[in-house]
């Protein structure tokens, strides 16, 4: 792998130089350039079938296929994305975000970790895999699917999948957009939480009213909003929506044992949580469990009435709450939405009108069964590549894994090697290059291992 | 009174034409012009001692004194104000706010009701009083004190009083800045609620954090703010601050009976309360009682986290609550402030930092003892002037009556004749001229009646 490392870094630098910010229409041309850069790199590496899907409405995605020598070998689809987050506030970057800069083992730049670095890792893995085999055909039929809208919530992913059913058909999806737990604690991610977001609007009068005139005699939407939010959790930190936990699948004993065995430093966790001052959460679960395998309800914003300097003694006419629920298998976002509407109706006092509006793009939760043979294979190749014990982890965020699973109809496993402190989505994003080299090593081994395990 | 009415309206028009918006530094010259207009009017009417207090820091106030013929007659200080509210949004006025326009019985213009109209009513009353007596000395020693900062919260009133102790010395303050209950239900106001305002700031981390990363594991200031607000009332609508009701003086049976006898139209009340949809409030009290004689806690604003379009799945770093408490005698704003600080400390979960900041200018509550002879005299002269039964009322808002009472050391009674639907502080402020004429009639009678009642 070391022999290929210099070329790998040079290639990744080139790709990072293309500012493929999908959320910014001014950069949509760059998203196209980024897709073509990747397609050219794949062709140069010898991939026999490379396509840029750029007929819209999705931003350009890249598809490639490299058939196995054995027609009965399993087909694996590697999913990643080549669009990147905006770079504001750009003045907080120590190096220009689109001029990749190497400092020791770190490579700084937007997309270095999320997700160009991990996609490049797979290109490297295939080269290493073929070099180790001494052939020009991989042990599994490899497909690569790299979309350009992940950072925008993958709004056209469903359509891309349905438009390209034949190309994307496979036996296993390898999702490559998650980190390991820590550099000294490599892990196999086995799931991501889903998300359902909503805005609750409580309306009283048609205008604010002076509290000297009416205060104490008419309902206050801000107070009602507060009571509604307060009622959303019980005193054990559990969400009180009807049947909220009915479909929750608890992690296996093996998973819980693994989580408990991971190193956990409270101070670091708090520092990485916006400088929070204390841990809290649902009773009976560890911090990692609260974030990985337990569903939550979080107030993302609440706004009502006067917020300027001094005092304005009004009863506000309206209050707005932004809420998001992180979901775990097998919770159904639609069921949560229904329960929320009922909850709001129950908690709206007489004289106020309540509306529940969907907010943001939801995503169902996903987790793979850890007894699936591909998960065991992943653990083996990670232990070989990282030369350490490897445990299970999950991530608390959300992504399109469930969508890929549902529409393609096969299990999704996670192969990611980046680190949680790579500052993805933030200034000074970086990747630790040896992590990607080890990840490539693991992937190269995985392609050899899978034929006996997955069919 | 009818003979004097034309001059009265002409004078009031002139005064309204001076835009004495005290809260706007660009209009501070107009506040001075307004004070001098009043001083000139008083001199023209024959007041022997007229002064403009304009040496700062208070905006110009007017003082005048007209000694009684009898050196043993009581001294009455009439309090009012000549500054007015801003006129925004000016496009909602049907007539120019500073060109008084008469339509039928109504005179439209900023300050027509609050408070130039009521001060002018007293000038008219003195003329009528002297005309009725056929002398040039009133039956009581009359003092007039018209400040220029009431709409800004009377920030220098304490200093004005203390700087002019001798001039302001009196046996009774007549406060002339409140309405009667309704045109068909004239009332004597007997008190105003006080107010204490605060801002509560709850801080978690130093920055917002992604809820996919930390959601469910660290305290959410928005949720904590909601729980704090929810805990502020019990399920009977009572405020839960420690000892909040300990010093509350309940209204007398006579007052409660009067309130119950007043006409009350729920639809009108709701329409005048910003279009509210239902009545609510503390159990066991009528709507008028809730607003006049019961203390309240009202959320004036709550702001935390994201409020833009769509969803931003963050745990906010901070939440801010603007709260105001309307207070009744003998509640002490300082005691409420202390109880609030303790309440916030008790309701701040581990990991959050809470601050309680004062917001706005507080005011203590005030009510006059309805058995005071001046109140009885007021009722008599109102019944004579308005030719209807007159009952007690109060107002739910706040003003400087308690300050005048405390610093001058005498009872304060209320003599106001305007109407609650005069749209004070709003576009299309108006006054119903016959109300002011009747109010002047009542005041003229009061000066004759008081010598036997108050000393
Ligand atoms: Zn990503
Ligand atoms: Zn006023």
Description:
By secondary structure, chain A is of the alpha+beta class. Chain A has two domains: 2-192 and 365-452, Zn peptidases (Aminopeptidase, 3-Layer(aba) Sandwich); 194-248 and 295-358, Alpha-Beta Plaits. Helices cover 33% and strands 21% of the residues of chain A. Chain A is built from 14 helices and 18 strands. The first copy, chain A, has helices at residues 2-16, 28-45, 116-133, 157-163, 165-168, 211-214, 221-230, 253-261, 266-271, 287-292, 333-346, 373-386, 401-408, 433-449; strands spanning 49-53, 61-66, 75-81, 101-103, 106-108, 141-147, 172-175, 187-192, 194-203, 209-210, 296-305, 314-315, 318-327, 353-358, 366-367, 391-395, 412-414, 430-432. In chain A, the strands form five sheets. A six-stranded mixed sheet of chain A has the order 1-2-6-3-7-17, with helices on both faces. Chain A has a four-stranded antiparallel sheet with strand order 11-13-9-14, with helices on one face. In chain A, strand 1 (49-53) and strand 2 (61-66) form a beta hairpin. The two termini of chain A are 28 Å apart. The model of chain A has no long low-confidence stretch (mean pLDDT 95). Chains A and B meet through strand 9, strand 10, helix 6, helix 7 and helix 10 of A and strand 9, strand 10, helix 6, helix 7 and helix 10 of B. Strand 11 (296-305) of chain A pairs antiparallel with strand 11 (296-305) of chain B. Residues 81, 114-115, 150, 177 of chain A line the site of one zinc ion (ZN).
